[in-house]
């Protein structure tokens, strides 16, 4: 009679104390590459044992595979499952008996027992815990022993890791016969990993980094991050990703960015939750500009917090112009699907207010700014249903010509567009006439003159 074997129970996280700096760490059990098994424990981050942090892409939500955590079953995504298979083989004792590598690395992740992996160590179903743990990720990646960057297979060029990584002499010679160093660098730096937003701060905050790839025959292959950087610097034309270029160029520097600069620099990087366009960069931003992580906050409210920080930057006359700020806000608004009715009103109040002495009939007449209802471009009639994208809203669109010399007001250059705004039910136009320097040749804020009533 066959035994009635019950499937293992489903793993459930025990709640963390979010009033402290608690984290979970996992430890792989040896000798289980085909069905990874782990133990999970809770530690205070400040007294936790040395651990490695994983930087990787989550990948699509299906298919999923089961692993065992404390003897109970947990479903994870395919890319993470493949990492466990590769990492289990590396940490297994028989890996020590493979042939000698071409060069030895400066540090060895195999000596560290514990791992921190967000997909497992954070209970993703609890928003409060997720807020707490994401808020700690700066400390986690900055305080870990090192970060493993998991790339897995290099599609289209599977031998690239053998040419760039810690391979045997035989494997290296094999790879060198069929591809060039430039091709290998282009293949690795063009990996999907470098398109994702979260990996930016994970790499930049870490003090040690090592890339782990998978080869169909040789198995797991380490690539030393610093070695990859040195080689990539000699072949910059092969790096197509803006984020990859930044990571390789600035990985060894401290990062205290303005929020506006961080968002603008990595605005093309991808993430699943739209809030992560901002939250995923908090570890790189100046401490006084960091926003509290809250995944329950509406996007409009998050945008309001960003605007407040941008306005402080603008009034402090930082190196980033208000045109940069405005463009970033509009891009975020488009990405998040925020319509112009709410965004226009705040942009008017925020960006017109510091320019009130330059907008005739707008600030000098004692108008109350909350009465400003909308702003955009003529010849469109006032219509709150028009989106920012359709309207092309933005001061940067207005500055179509520039003259480096000072011009008398009668000689100022009209632009092809004009703004409209409404106060107390009356719609005004401001025709764009600009100058861009004063008598000393210094750049000044463009000034706008001329008005009409519609």
Q: What would you note in describing this structure?
A:
There is one protein chain. The chain has helices at residues 78-91, 118-121, 127-135, 137-143, 160-164, 169-178, 181-189, 198-205, 225-233, 242-250, 259-265, 276-279, 299-315, 322-336, 340-352, 388-391, 395-398, and strands at residues 22-28, 37-44, 51-55, 64-69, 72-77, 114-116, 146-152, 209-215, 219-224, 372-377, 413-423, 426-434, 452-453. The chain is α/β, with parallel strands linked by helices. It has 3 domains: 22-253, no CATH class; 254-338, no CATH class; 356-454, no CATH class. A 9-stranded mixed β-sheet has the order 5-4-2-1-6-3-7-8-9, sandwiched between helices. It has a 4-stranded antiparallel β-sheet with strand order 10-11-12-13, covered by helices on one side. A hairpin with a 3-residue loop joins strand 8 (209-215) and strand 9. It is globular, with a radius of gyration of 27 Å.
Backbone shape: globular
Poorly predicted regions: 93-105, 318-323, 349-454
Mean pLDDT, all residues:
74
Q: What would you call the quaternary organization?
A: single chain
- β-strand number: 13
Strand content: 15-25%
N to C succession of SSEs:
EEEEEHEHHHEHHHHEEHHHHHHHEHHEEE
Count of individual helical segments: 17
Helix content: 25-40%
Q: What is the count of distinct domains?
A: 3
Q: Over the alpha carbons, how many angstroms does the gyration radius reach?
A: 27 Å
User: What topology, given as strand order, has the largest sheet?
Assistant: 5-4-2-1-6-3-7-8-9
Biggest β-sheet strands, sense, barrel: 9 strands, mixed
* Coarse structural class: alpha/beta
- End-to-end span in angstroms? 90 Å
């Amino acid at each position: 009679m066959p035994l009635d074997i019950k499937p293992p129970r489903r793993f459930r996280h025990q709640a963390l104390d979010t009033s402290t700096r608690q984290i979970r760490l996992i430890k792989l059990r040896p000798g289980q590459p085909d069905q990874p098994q782990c133990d999970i424990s809770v530690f205070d981050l400040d007294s936790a044992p040395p651990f490695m942090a994983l930087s990787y892409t989550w990948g699509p939500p299906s298919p999923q595979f089961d692993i065992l955590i404390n003897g109970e079953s947990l479903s994870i995504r395919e890319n993470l499952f493949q990492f466990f298979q590769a990492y289990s083989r590396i940490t297994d004792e028989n890996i020590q008996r493979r042939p000698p590598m071409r060069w030895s690395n400066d540090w060895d992740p195999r000596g560290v027992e514990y791992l921190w992996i967000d997909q497992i160590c954070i209970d993703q179903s609890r928003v409060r815990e997720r807020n707490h743990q994401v808020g700690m990720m700066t400390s986690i990646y900055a305080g870990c022993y090192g970060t493993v960057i998991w790339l897995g297979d290099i599609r289209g060029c599977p031998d690239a890791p053998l040419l760039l990584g810690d391979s045997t002499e035989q494997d290296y010679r094999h790879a060198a016969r069929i591809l060039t160093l430039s091709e290998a660098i282009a293949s690795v730096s063009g990996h999907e990993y470098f398109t994702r937003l979260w990996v930016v701060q994970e790499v930049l905050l870490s003090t040690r980094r090592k890339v782990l790839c998978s080869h169909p025959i040789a198995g797991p292959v380490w690539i030393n991050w610093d070695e990859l950087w040195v080689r990539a610097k000699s072949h910059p034309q092969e790096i197509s990703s803006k984020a990859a270029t930044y990571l390789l160029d600035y990985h060894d520097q401290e990062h205290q960015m303005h929020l506006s600069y961080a968002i603008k620099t990595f605005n093309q990087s991808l993430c699943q939750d739209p809030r992560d366009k901002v939250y995923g960069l908090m570890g790189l931003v100046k401490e006084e500009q960091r926003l509290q992580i809250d995944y329950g906050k509406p996007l409009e409210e998050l945008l309001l917090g960003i605007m407040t920080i941008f306005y402080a930057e603008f009034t402090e006359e930082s190196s980033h112009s208000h045109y940069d700020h405005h463009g970033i806000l509009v891009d975020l608004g488009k990405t998040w699907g925020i319509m112009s009715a709410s965004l226009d009103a705040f942009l008017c109040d925020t960006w017109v207010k510091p320019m009130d002495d330059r907008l005739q009939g707008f600030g000098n007449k004692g108008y109350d700014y909350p009465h400003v209802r909308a702003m955009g471009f003529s010849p469109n009639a006032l219509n709150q249903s028009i989106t920012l994208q359709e309207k092309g809203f933005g001061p940067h669109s207005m500055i179509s010509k520039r003259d480096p010399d000072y011009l008398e007001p009668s000689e100022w250059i009209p632009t092809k567009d004009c703004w409209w705004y409404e106060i107390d039910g009356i719609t005004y136009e401001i025709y764009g006439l600009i100058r861009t320097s004063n008598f000393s040749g210094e750049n000044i804020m463009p000034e706008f003159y001329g008005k009409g009533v519609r």
